[in-house]
Write a structure and sequence with these properties.
- Chain B: Keywords: Methyltransferase, Nucleus, RNA-binding, S-adenosyl-L-methionine, Transferase, tRNA processing, tRNA-binding.
- Chain B: It catalyses: guanosine(46) in tRNA + S-adenosyl-L-methionine = N(7)-methylguanosine(46) in tRNA + S-adenosyl-L-homocysteine.
- Chain B: Forms a complex with TRM82.
- Chain B: It is found in: Nucleus.
- The complex is a heterodimer of chains A (514) and B (307).
- Chain A is mostly beta strands.
- Helices cover 12% and strands 36% of the residues of chain A.
- Chain A is built from 7 helices and 30 strands.
- In chain A, strands 1-2-3-4 form a 4-stranded antiparallel beta sheet, with no helix packed on it.
- Chain B has 307 residues and is of the alpha/beta class.
- A 7-stranded mixed beta sheet of chain B has the order 3-2-1-4-5-7-6, sandwiched between helices.
- In chain B, α8 packs across α9.
- The chains are: A mainly beta (514), B alpha/beta (307).
- The interface between A and B is large, with 79 and 59 residues.
- The complex binds S-adenosylmethionine.
- S-adenosylmethionine binds next to β2, α4 and α9 of chain B.
């Protein structure tokens, strides 16, 4: 058994939020623990009951994995592409049931934190008092499991991208008082949300296509059972339909993997800026749609990936027309997302092979592409756009630099004593201006035998799950954060933990089916 | 695994048949019984589909050989390489594959074309327009492929040996029609660029009665945005079904989509493609035999509003 590592990081001003299992811890800028939010246990119990699991399966064969029955009769919807066919049937995916934070996001002003838990398809919104204390404002169970989310630039709307390919808009702060001037709770941007689908009662064959009496009787029976089924489904749909305001904006017929918002000058009035919603899916697509209220218009696609796309990163200020995308391909691709033009490629696999112990690796799954903001100043005082890349199960950070000609070149690998899971920048409150160095915070999985074996001996738990890294030039010195609070979640088997932490490679399609 | 042997035998028979038909001058029209397949394929599963990463990388030359442009092999600067140095290293090659170009683009798509009745009837009426059927079932696609091949050969032979009894078909007939195995719900943007199509046909789509299967329907609020993307403004989506509720569903979802408007009945009935859609699709014929109803609705792609 092992303890949960820290796996998600979000720095809000001087406060660090770090998710560990189903807890969110906060720390001040000296990385002293401030407080902890815990996933409510009762909620966990009620939301994982088999009845509910079975019920909320409005699209049983949704992307990417077919639902299949497992021994206990529950549908297994969470495992993805990798788990397929007969072998997959024997996985009783317990990861499915354990509350686990799957995503952690913050408004740009740091006043609100948003989190996703997968097992109950819930989006949580917290108010942050600026000192590390969270107040739970809402929890909203979505129609389908959210995979990723982002916020509109005004920080007022959550854009949630789900496993079934749909993007929903939700107000960050739900309006609780019924307001006649605001739209009805399920008003879709594209009229007719899926939840409004009428039930069709007719069986496929009709009276004219069957002739024998027996056939006719069978048809009658079919009709009756279809009607019953449809009525039952209608009832269930009604029950499952979220009661809060949520708007269907757009959809792919594929599992969504990432979503971000880009801005560009309006084509009719270049002095105003327009938002675009950029979404990526498991079928290699990156789609660019107009923002609200014209999300039904697809502006274009960035096409050229040959495997799943799992991560999108808009380049920081001044280069916002650039999109760096990574996934199951050997390379990162740099796009001009407004024109859909491919600008550059930057190899990933090639550099992963140079990480100690990774020489034999022949495929990569990119899990983070993190570009430093424009005020990032490196140790030697130059302003550069540095891009950190995390590859699943690779115990290093890959460091790239984005150049003025839009090329992205690899600078170095930063070896780590475990697999990095997430990262963010630590900015000392009083040093934002003219700071000589920013520090990088990295969450990692220390149960991996990384390049340093010493960490394993002492506390097998979390002593190295959080690291702070400071740099001089391209040289990075990691230092572990001490005195971390321990997880409130019970320990977990290593295999189960890995199933929770390392989900990206599973997006890859199998090529040999027979 | 017990059925494997039987499956193999059947497959073997089919393959033998198809090989024979292809060798034998190709003028014999294929027989459906050798191409039947399970009625439904799940549009969400991965299958083993072949599709280009980008429309520019689609090789149309084998589907429309008569339209291939023979040009000097040169490097079209579609996606210029910013690092002008050594584009040969695999990691930095931005324009990996340049297929042969056609003198014109495909303009008509028949989504879920089944056995190809619509295309085969439509092709001679629009002889200068390239049209493509998209079908997810492998052997049904193969049937249409063989059918087109046979029709081309027949047309060529008829043109070579003119007889008095029947007027020879124009040479080049059926050269403008092709078929591809594809999941049209996922990969339209891989085959067609923005605004490339002028007509999309959706004829007798699978109804998917159950509410929880509605996302599998080929018409939906979100999927209509993709049809709008590949259709040029003024382009038309043609729909026909014998299932009244599905008709209603399609009308409702297209009418509600801001990129489409319903075409008036008058205009609809004066469109020659509508008659073909009613009578020439295999499903249309089946419904005819059963004296069932056919519900038609057309939708026009509108210009996008300013943004
Ligand atoms: C009922 S048949 C109609 C065939 C033909 N349009 C006609 O009218 O005779 C529907 C066809 O759509 C095909 N189909 C269903 N989903 C599809 C998809 N996602 N992409 C391509 N074809 C699809 C099915 O395999 C089937 O052949």
């Amino acid at each position: 058994m092992v303890a949960f590592p820290y796996h998600l990081l979000k720095v809000c001003g001087g406060i660090v939020f770090a998710a560990q299992g189903s807890d969110i811890h906060s720390f001040n800028s000296r990385l002293e623990h401030v407080s902890t939010w815990k996933y409510p246990q009762q909620h966990a119990a009620e939301s994982t009951g088999p009845a509910e699991e079975a019920q909320d399966s409005p699209a049983p064969e949704g992307p990417p994995a077919k639902r299949r029955k497992v021994e206990d009769g529950k549908d297994d919807a969470a495992s993805n592409g990798q788990a397929k066919g007969k072998k997959a049937a024997q996985y009783d995916n317990p990861a499915n049931e354990r509350p686990f934070l799957q995503g952690l996001y913050a408004t740009t002003d740091g006043r609100y934190l948003v989190a996703i838990t997968g097992c109950d398809k819930t989006i949580w919104v917290f108010e942050h008092d600026g000192a590390g204390h969270l107040k739970e404002l809402s929890r909203r169970a979505m129609p389908k499991r959210p995979c990723a989310l982002t916020l509109t630039r005004d920080n007022r709307t959550i854009l949630s991208a789900d496993k079934f390919g749909d993007v929903y808009a939700l107000p960050l702060i739900p309006t609780t008082t019924p307001d006649t001037s605001s739209p009805a709770p399920t008003t879709p941007a594209i009229p007719l949300s899926r939840s409004e689908t009428p039930i069709i009662l007719r069986p496929e064959a009709n009276e004219l296509t069957v002739h024998t009496k027996r056939n006719l009787r069978a048809l009658e029976n079919q009709k009756i059972s279809l009607e019953r089924k449809a009525a039952r489904e209608a009832e269930q749909q009604e029950q499952n339909r979220p009661k809060f305001e949520h708007t269907l904006l757009l959809g792919h017929v594929s599992m969504l993997t990432a979503i971000c918002v880009g801005v560009a000058p309006s084509s009719s009035n270049p002095s105003t800026m327009r938002e675009y919603i950029i979404t990526s899916d498991r079928d290699e697509h990156i789609r660019v749609s107009r923002g609200v209220p014209q999300t039904h218009v697809i502006e274009g696609f960035c096409l050229g990936h040959e495997d799943f796309v799992s991560r999108l990163c808009i380049a920081p200020g001044g280069k916002e027309e650039l999109l760096i995308a990574g996934g199951g391909d050997d390379d990162l691709l740099v796009w001009d997302w407004r024109s859909g033009r491919l600008l550059a490629r930057a190899p990933v696999l090639e550099h992963v092979k140079r990480v100690k112990g990774m020489e034999e690796v022949n495929k990569v799954a990119v899990t983070r592409v993190f570009a430093t903001p424009k005020w990032w100043i490196t140790g030697n005082g130059t302003v550069r756009t540095v891009v950190f890349v995390v590859v699943e199960r690779v115990p290093a950070l890959l460091l790239y630099e984005l150049w003025h000609d839009n090329t992205l070149s690899h600078r170095c690998n930063i070896p780590l004593p475990g697999n990095p899971l997430d990262l963010d920048l630590l900015v000392d409150e009083d040093l934002v201006q003219g700071s000589t160095s920013c520090r990088l915070l990295v969450a990692l999985d220390p149960t991996q035998k990384g390049s340093s074996a010493t960490t394993e001996s002492e506390d097998p738990g979390c002593t190295t799950s959080l690291m702070v890294m400071a740099n001089t030039g391209d040289e990075w010195k990691p230092a572990p954060v001490e005195n971390l609070p321990t997880s409130s979640s019970a320990d977990i088997g290593e295999a189960e933990l890995h199933k929770l932490l390392y989900t990206t490679e599973g997006l890859r399609k199998l090529t040999d089916f027979e | 695994m017990g059925g494997d042997k039987i499956k193999k035998d059947r497959r073997q028979k089919r393959e033998d048949y198809r090989r024979a038909i292809r060798q034998d001058g190709v003028s014999e029209l294929p027989r459906k019984k050798f191409y039947r397949q399970r009625a439904h394929a799940n549009p969400f599963s991965d299958h083993q589909l072949i599709y280009p990463p980008h429309p520019d990388q689609m090789d149309w030359s084998s589907l429309f050989p008569d339209y291939v442009v023979h040009e000097e092999p040169q490097q079209p600067q579609q996606q210029p390489n910013p690092s002008a140095a050594a584009p040969s290293s695999p990691g930095t090659d931005l324009a990996p594959f340049q297929p042969k170009r056609l003198s014109k683009d495909v303009e008509i798509a028949d989504i879920g074309c089944g056995f190809g009745g619509l295309l085969v009837a439509l092709a001679p009426t629009l002889p200068d327009t390239l049209m493509l059927g998209l079908e997810i079932r492998v052997s049904v696609t193969q049937f249409v492929e063989d059918r087109i091949q046979a029709l081309r050969t027949q047309a060529r032979r008829a043109a070579e040996t003119p007889s008095d009894s029947s007027p020879p078909p124009a040479p080049g007939m059926y050269r403008n029609v092709g078929v591809l195995r594809a999941n049209a719900m996922k990969f339209l943007p891989n085959f067609f660029r923005k605004g490339q199509l002028s007509k999309i046909f959706i004829c007798f789509p699978d109804p998917h009665f159950k509410a929880r299967k509605h996302k599998q329907r080929i018409v939906s609020a979100t999927l209509n945005s993709e049809y709008a993307y590949v259709l040029r403004p003024g382009g038309i989506v043609y729909t026909i079904t014998d299932v009244p509720d599905l008709h209603e569903w399609m009308v409702r979802h297209f009418e509600a989509h801001p990129s489409f408007e319903r075409v008036s009945e008058e205009e609809q009935e004066s469109d020659p493609s509508v008659a073909i859609m009613r009578t020439e699709t295999e499903e249309g014929k089946k419904v005819e035999r059963n004296k069932g109803q056919k519900h038609v609705a057309l939708f026009r792609r509108l210009e996008d509003p300013e943004w």
